[in-house]
Design brief:
This protein is mostly helical. It contains 14 helices and no strands.
Length: 348
């Protein structure tokens, strides 16, 4: 068992070494090339490497996070970098230092700016990072001790899994924010803005949920697609088309992440989840524009929005993970980490 755990750690170290070498090449060589086609051509091996990196990892967490950090976010940031845009560009990179380049490329972070996300001001029950860490730990420990995936009603279990998905991302990205922010000595944008307080799908996806991903999709997909279609079908229709394309791209990237985690062929349920939300968001925007509908009172809009997200998540997002026992494997991963840490402490 110890050999298996050491093998996982060695594989993870190799992945990070490959990433470091790739980013050194990008920073010291590719950055000297003129923006455009030459940079894209020079980075094709890096795009390919980052896409296949998760295949060398065997656990759901390591493979999933590597896919999220590098196959998705880092690749999209580097794509923007090819045109001297995005957080890695000379204009946006603070002090243009190598360390800043590595950290911003490798982690799901964004330096906070004055024109940043339009955070809402009517939060009612905001929780700080450490309280979320505590809640997440309690859920994981309960699963570890009681094996609740066999003892809890399936509907309640799915509700718990919805919370776990959110808290897992919030805790991991929040800790990354704290660590990298302290190294950079800069204020970073929060990864989430209390999504459980959302009052519409537009509020949930555009202003509260996984803001790093929203920002990357906005600049790599939404803005270019909208600009392309504006001169052809007008601004309003172009916005709707760009919104749908962004949701399609998000769905396909999630399918790829699910493949890394489960290692089974896509079922396209996750893509359907994002297509459904894209359509519903477009309809919501259209109704507000055509009928001039205002926002519903938060006491009604909040439960409807969160209920819809969780209900469709239980229907289309979570089943593939549960079918392939990702929940069970993740708990085994927690046990393995606990054993490894205890072994190190015992030796010391």
């Amino acid at each position: 068992m110890e050999e298996q755990e050491e093998g996982i750690i060695k594989a993870l170290i190799k992945v990070w070494l490959k990433v470091l070498i790739s980013l050194i090449y990008t920073y010291f060589i590719v950055s000297k090339f003129p923006k455009g086609k030459l940079r894209i051509f020079s980075l094709l091996p890096i795009f390919s490497l980052f896409t296949f990196l998760p295949n060398s990892l065997s656990t759901p967490t390591t493979a999933g996070l590597t896919g999220f950090f590098f196959t998705w976010l880092a690749n999209f940031k580097l794509l923007l970098f090819c045109f001297n845009l995005g957080p890695l560009s000379n204009d946006n990179l603070p002090k243009n230092s190598f360390l800043n380049f590595i950290l911003i490329a490798s982690f799901p972070i964004k330096i906070k700016q004055n024109e940043n996300y339009p955070f809402t001001q009517n939060q009612k029950l905001p929780l700080n990072l450490w309280s979320k860490c505590l809640i997440y730990s309690i859920i994981v420990i309960c699963g570890f001790l009681s094996n609740y995936n066999k003892n809890v009603h399936p509907n309640i279990l799915m509700g718990i899994y919805c919370c776990v998905v959110y808290l897992n991302l919030e805790v991991i990205m929040g800790i990354c924010n704290k660590i990298v922010g302290s190294i950079l000595r800069m204020e970073l944008s929060p990864p989430f803005d209390e999504p459980y307080l959302s009052t519409s799908l537009q509020d949930f996806w555009g202003r509260r949920w996984n803001l790093m991903v929203s920002d990357v999709l906005r600049h790599t997909v939404y803005f270019p697609i909208r600009a392309f279609w504006e001169i052809r079908i007008g601004k309003r229709w172009a916005q709707l088309v760009a919104t749908m394309v962004a949701f399609v791209v998000s769905g396909l990237m999630h399918e790829l992440l699910f493949f890394y985690i489960t290692r089974v062929s896509p079922t396209w349920e996750v893509t359907c989840f994002f297509l459904l939300h894209g359509v519903c968001l477009v309809v919501e925007i259209g109704l507000k524009r055509v009928l001039g509908l205002g926002e519903l009172h938060w006491a009604l809009a909040g439960p409807l929005t969160v209920g819809f997200v969780m209900g469709t998540g239980v229907w289309l997002f979570l089943p593939q993970l549960v079918r392939n026992q990702v929940d069970v494997r993740s708990l085994e991963e927690v046990k393995a980490v606990s054993r490894f840490v205890k072994g190190i402490l015992a030796k010391n």
